[in-house]
Amino acid sequence: MAIIMTHTSTRRNFILVGTGYGVYRSESPSAVGGSLFPNIEQGEIPKVCVSDEEGMLHWFDPQELRVLSVDGMHVKNLLDQYPPIIDEPNLHGEESVSSGIEWETCPGCQTKVLPTEAICPSCELTLVDRNATF
To answer: Residue 84: phi, psi to the nearest 5?
Structure first.
C-alpha cells in the first residue's frame, strides 16, 4: 500500500515517494571587512517528493501537501485507533484543553517538556531538577 497525499492548492492527489532536505551556505566578501567579515547567507529547504498517476516525480514544500490515507486507511480513522498515552501540547505549543498537566518550556529550544523530564527530548539539554539540593 501507499501514502496518498493531496496538493492543497490544486486538489490533485499524489503518492508519497520520500522526502528531501537541502542545506545551502553562500559567502561573499563584504564592502567594509572584505573576507574577514564576509556576508553569509544560509538556510534549509525541506521538500517532499511525490508521484502523479503517470509516474512523474514532483517536489513540493511540506506545507503544500496533506496526507489523505496510509495503507488505504483515512488518517483520522488510523489515529483514532491509537489514543495518546498522555495529553501532549498541540503543534502550536498551546496547552491541551483536556490536560491537567502543567507543561514547561525547554530554555534551549523552546519545546514543551514535562516537569518530570531530566533531559529535553528535542535538543537533549539537561534540565535542572528543582527538587534537588545543592
So the answer is: -65, 145
Place of cell 483520522: 76
Global confidence as pTM? 0.53
Q: Is 127 exposed, middle or buried (0-12, 13-18, 19+ CB in 10 A)?
A: middle
Residue 62: left if φ>0, alpha if ψ -120 to 50, beta else—which one?
alpha
Cell of 78: 488510523
Q: Tens of pLDDT along 23-81?
A: 888 899 888 888 888 888 888 889 999 999 999 999 999 999 999 999 988 988 887 77
Task: List Cβ neighbours of 49 (8 Å cut-off, separation of 6 or more).
Answer: 16, 17, 18, 19, 20, 57, 58, 59
Top pLDDT among 43 and 4 is at 4
Contact 112, 105 (CB under 8 A): yes
Q: Report the amino acid identity of residue 11.
A: R
Residue 100's contacts (CB-CB under 8 Å, 6 or more residues apart) are none
- Per-residue confidence (pLDDT) for residue 52, from 0 to 100: 95
